[in-house]
Design goal:
Layout lengths: L8 E4 L2 E2 L5 E5 L2 E5 L7 E9 L3 E11 L29 H20 L5 E2 L13 E9 L4 E5 L19 H4 L2 H10 L8 E6 L5 E6 L6 H14 L2 E5 L7 E2 L9 E4 L4 E4 L10 H15 L6 E5 L7 H5 L4 E6 L2 H13 L6 E5 L7 H11 L4 E4 L7 H9 L6 E6 L2 H15 L1 E9 L9 E8 L5 H7 L2
Parallel strand pairs: 4-6, 7-21, 11-12, 16-17, 16-19, 17-18, 19-20
Antiparallel strand pairs: 1-5, 2-3, 3-4, 5-6, 8-9, 8-10, 10-11, 12-13, 14-15, 20-22, 21-22
Helix pairs in contact: 1-10, 5-11, 9-10
């Protein structure tokens, strides 16, 4: 391994990688440059050198891309250490979508050897103030005499020096400095590594303080005063997510995800999994239901159903929807939501290990709800390989499958199983900009068994 160069060197940036870094080449090596864009000439300083690649930091932009724009956040930068919560604020939002669409298409081809018959219009919305869920790190920097609260610096374990955040709701952004002052005054400040935040549909804000030691009465009173002054609900989390509880039981907050088009409201806890971007989630659910196109007699399976984000809207259109989820707590919430909406007779819920789903489980599901003609899958980053293998082998496959993905690589892998082992066709795919200004690529895809064509459904999704 060669030593990093001290003097900066000029490089031509050729492309972006999947983390949003500029990619250049020199001396037979790939060089990754955070904050640089294709077509730019950048002056960079090499930080790490490996046999096949180098990692460099930007010093100056010598020739700027036409797609470069002024970052909306003062904590984002090219020539300095910056907040790592966003990686693409320097790229014009429409260009960000194009980069993500290309990343999706390239991944589908390189991993799955698949090209969608149709590219769906990107699902996009506001690129600022969108993030209603976040985990802020806390660091007591003794040598500087300050407490920092925020996201980590880019490619670092250090917490960025932040006083605001352009992607958090305005009320939450305004809490960053008061939170720093609050934690600095606590006796357990060195035993408080993070604050998780959740914003509900009614603008309720819950802050979950991760406490490695129990706070004493003075600290509890300080937390209560903070909650009252800033109109937020304070929770404590001594261990894992399930251990979180409200500091005062009568001040737990009213968090919910709302889907007005389907007259659905889904209450959730501050540490439950929900989509961070409720505006994009509304559009995503609408498009997924349109693509799946359930009929009044349809029987639908919803894998990784969570709170019922897709299950309940689908139940408004189909005869019966069965939601499967790994978390018993989320299943209980989904079942309770179905009952509140009068959908208990049109839904079923079950908790189980979906990584072990097999033909016997498929047969049991059909015995429970009848012939299955629609499937929706919304898995974690690990994907839904077991389910894809079952659907590739069943004798009477469902008519349509909608796959919502947060990882293009596992989407491509699972679609390849369906296509190459089961004869399914990848009818359509497109990106979902759930995390603007980041390199994170979410997507949605429609697959059908060979021979089935639904041009009318696809046309309605492009309107």
């Amino acid at each position: 391994m060669s030593a990093p160069e001290v003097d900066p060197v000029p490089l031509e940036i050729e492309s972006l990688d999947l983390e949003g870094r500029g990619v250049a080449r020199r001396d037979g090596k790939v060089v990754f440059v955070a904050g640089a864009l294709p077509g730019e000439r950048a002056l960079v300083r090499v930080l790490r050198s490996r046999p096949s690649y180098e990692v460099a930091a930007g010093v100056a932009i010598l020739r700027s891309s036409a797609a470069r724009c002024a970052p909306p956040c003062p904590h984002f930068g090219f020539e300095r250490e910056a907040c790592g919560g966003c990686s693409m604020q320097h790229l014009e939002p429409r260009a960000q979508l194009a980069v993500k669409q290309r990343a999706l298409e390239d991944t589908l081809w390189h991993i799955g050897r698949l090209r969608p018959e149709l590219i769906l219009r990107p699902i996009a919305g506001s690129s600022l103030r969108y993030r209603h869920r976040a985990r802020l790190s806390v660091r007591d920097v003794v040598r500087k005499g300050v407490v920092l609260v925020g996201f980590h610096e880019r490619a670092s374990s250090h917490v960025a020096e932040m006083r605001s955040c352009a992607v958090l709701p305005a009320r939450v952004s305004a809490l960053i400095v008061p939170l720093r002052e609050l934690v600095a005054a606590l006796t357990i400040r060195r035993r408080l590594p993070q604050v998780e935040l959740a914003v509900g549909a009614g603008d309720d804000i819950v802050l979950v303080f991760r406490v490695l030691d129990p706070p004493g009465e003075a600290d509890r009173q300080a937390l209560r005063r903070f909650g009252a002054e800033h109109r937020v609900c304070v929770w404590l989390q001594p261990k894992g997510p399930d251990s979180a509880y409200p500091l005062d039981r009568d001040d737990a907050g009213d968090l919910a995800l709302e889907l007005p088009e389907f007259d659905v409201r889904l209450p959730f806890g501050p540490t439950d999994f929900t989509q961070v971007n409720p505006g994009i989630n509304e559009i995503l659910v609408r498009v997924a239901v349109r693509l799946l196109a359930p009929e009044p007699a349809s029987r639908v399976l919803d894998f990784y159903c969570g709170l019922g984000n897709f299950t309940l809207p689908l139940a408004r259109r189909a005869a019966l929807v069965a939601g499967y989820e790994g978390s018993p707590a989320l299943v209980a919430r989904a079942r309770a939501a179905a009952e509140r909406h009068g959908l208990q007779d049109r839904t079923r819920f079950a908790a189980g290990d979906l990584d072990r789903w097999d033909e016997a489980a498929w047969g049991a599901a059909q015995a429970d709800i009848g012939p299955i003609d629609r499937v929706l899958v919304d898995p974690p980053r690990e994907g839904a390989l077991a389910i894809a293998r079952v659907l590739a082998r069943v004798a009477a496959p469902p008519r349509r499958l909608v796959y919502v993905s947060c990882n293009p690589a596992t989407l491509a892998r699972d679609c390849a199983v369906l296509a190459h082992e089961g004869g399914w066709a990848l009818r359509a795919a497109g990106v979902v900009n759930m995390f603007p200004h980041t390199s994170h690529v979410e997507s949605i895809a429609l697959l059908e068994p060979g021979g089935t064509v639904v041009r009318d459904t696809l046309a309605s999704c492009l309107e």
